[in-house]
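The instructor's notes for this session suggest beginning with a concrete chain rather than abstract definitions. Hand out the sequence below and ask the class to guess, before any prediction is shown, which regions might be ordered.
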Amino acid sequence: MEQYRLAVEMADRISGRRQSANAFFVSVVSALTITNGSGIVSEWYWTSTVSGAAMLVCFMWWRTLASYRAINSAKFKVIHKIERSLPFLMFAEEEQHYKSSKRTGYKPLSRIEQAVPVLFAVVILVSAIVSVVAK
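After discussion, reveal the predicted structure:
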């Protein structure tokens, strides 16, 4: 039972770290985007450089989220395996409920979350192109 508690706690900690990483990446990408839009960088090559840096950060963010998703997936496989020896399969039962619910339109949060850096990168790319063409 202690191993089960530890596995669940470790999965929760990974989720907390993922949220901290998200906050960090949002801050960095926002700062770079604000720098580009504020007029601080006025030459096309600086706009391109800052936009490229922001898109690189978005890529690193996307990869970080993919890594966290893989880690959590592995942790929950272990949790499900441990649960087989317990009287009630709490996480397996919960997973069945939200996956089988047609009304909720269940999509794994990790998949939705991973779309955010891609959307940021697309917006940054379009903004950079518009900015460079306008100059």
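Then share the key points. The chain has a mean pLDDT of 83. The two ends are 65 Å apart (CA to CA).
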